[in-house]
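Reopening: structure tokens for the guanosine-5'-monophosphate complex, inputs below.
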Amino acid sequence: MEHFYPEVYISEEDLSLRIAEIGKAITDDFQGEEVTIVCVLKGAFMFCSDLLKKIDLPVKLDFIQLSSYGEGTVSSGNVKIEMDVSDSLKNQNVIIVEDIIDTGLTMTTLKEMFEVRKPKSVKVASLLFKPSRNTHPVDIDYLGFEIEDKFVVGYGLDYAGRFRELPYVGILNAGN
Ligand code: 5GP
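Re-run output (same inputs, fresh job):
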């Protein structure tokens, strides 16, 4: 199979610098507390892994997998839990770690689902944000980068299951 490399949009170095800043911000905000990181699979796995290493606090790690019906490069209407977290989240400082917030539907739905579980707090960390398509506004407490309305891949994000392994965020050009 041909090994194709998308064009670099956010370099490995820029990702690393920004993620260190986010880790420090979380560390400063939660001094003396424990945080529960909820990694939204699959796209956030790499961001989450690098971010955890920059958080100097007692940390619990959990995972959740969601699906939104439909396929292609535009997210569709309904969000469903495919695999839930293993912890109750009650009285915990939850930080949801997501790869990208586009329309905001996934994150607003997830936050609502979590609030019902009576955590101590719920914060959102997203590596990327596309403001141009945001129809469901949600507070992003920790943001990596605001980006243009482009379909990005790499650093955990996929297109048809591919490109997650890239160490940078890239763009697929027409014809790729
Ligand atoms: P939202 O619910 O905010 O519209 O969409 C969030 C989800 O859509 C992300 O978790 C991601 O799975 C997918 N998504 C949105 N934009 C992109 C993109 O540019 N690239 C990739 N690979 N996935 C995206």
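The first strand starts at residue 7 and ends at 10. Residues 11-150 form a domain with the Rossmann fold fold (CATH 3.40.50.2020). Marking as resolved unless the reporter disagrees.
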